[in-house]
């Protein structure tokens, strides 16, 4: 596989979760990328990577959504997304469902350009230490969909380098949050039970907040905690990076 492009002219895939629930994550992504000297384009007609339909087995519908993304993000430069899950979908899932399609090449070309944001910063731009300061302790949640990628380790490399920030070890590091996209609606009781196990581990760490590179996990854990009337503070990795530098909008939480 050819090396992914790592130039500073990037297209931001903000994801449907940013659009619906996490607008501050999209804002922080632009601010952090611009701080690093990137020129950021945010295509207005982007929608979704196709993962919900893909996970439901509705591959025809998923391909229609993915084809739209292929048109919107056509080009040669990096496509960066603040979502390990969406990055994995476009780099792996899309390649699988286009295996026998005539436009397989277009799917593969997009797959070869997609970066999760932390991965892009560390392995694309070569930034391994972050400036500023962030006072507090964070429990890091590894999302299932980012397994087998450089996403989690890249995020931890950046977070661990920030003065004042302490990463707290948690038990059952690989434990799922229980969200799984449509899994949480198809099997709600099982999803809640899995999430409760994860929340118990996160709470036992006694960190100031939970941080992750996947908004779906953060949304699910936040919802479960609120339902229990024991809310937890959740942050996306890029919000921490933005807040450490005291860029405009610092202090916002998801």
What descriptive keywords fit this protein?
alpha/beta, Rossmann fold, 2 domains, four-stranded parallel β-sheet, 12 helices, 8 strands, globular
Please sum up the structure shown.
It contains 12 helices and 8 strands. With 254 residues, it is of the alpha/beta class.
Plain-language structure description:
The radius of gyration is 18 Å and the shape is globular. Strands 2-1-3-4 form a 4-stranded parallel sheet, sandwiched between helices. Helix content is 47%, strand content 12%. The chain folds into 2 domains: 9-124; 136-244, Rossmann fold (3-Layer(aba) Sandwich). It is built from 12 helices and 8 strands. The longest helix is centred in the last third of the chain and has 17 residues, at 188-204. β5, α8 (151-160) and β6 form a beta-alpha-beta unit. The protein is α/β, with parallel strands linked by helices and 254 residues long.
């Amino acid at each position: 596989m050819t090396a992914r492009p790592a130039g500073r002219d990037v297209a931001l895939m903000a994801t449907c979760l940013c659009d619906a629930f996490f607008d501050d994550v999209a804002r922080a992504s632009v601010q952090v990328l611009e701080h690093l000297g990137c020129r950021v384009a945010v295509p207005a007609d982007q929608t979704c990577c196709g993962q919900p339909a893909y996970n439901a087995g509705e591959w025809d519908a998923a391909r229609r959504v993915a084809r739209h993304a292929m048109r919107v993000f056509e080009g040669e430069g990096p496509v960066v997304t603040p979502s390990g899950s969406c990055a994995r979908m476009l780099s792996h899932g899309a390649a699988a469902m286009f295996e026998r399609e005539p436009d397989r090449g277009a799917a593969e070309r997009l797959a070869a350009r997609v970066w999760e944001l932390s991965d892009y910063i560390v392995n694309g731009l070569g930034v391994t230490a972050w400036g500023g300061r962030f006072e507090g302790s964070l429990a890091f949640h590894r999302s299932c969909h980012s397994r087998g990628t450089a996403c989690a380790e890249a995020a931890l490399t950046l977070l661990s380098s920030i003065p004042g920030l302490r990463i707290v070890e948690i038990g059952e590091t690989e434990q799922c949050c229980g969200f799984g996209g449509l899994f949480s609606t198809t099997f709600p009781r099982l999803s809640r039970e899995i999430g409760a196990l994860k929340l118990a581990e996160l709470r036992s760490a006694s960190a100031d907040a939970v941080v992750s590179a996947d908004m779906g996990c953060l949304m699910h854990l936040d919802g479960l905690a609120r339902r229990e009337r024991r809310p937890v503070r959740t942050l996306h990795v890029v919000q921490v990076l933005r807040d450490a530098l005291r860029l405009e909008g610092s202090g916002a939480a998801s």
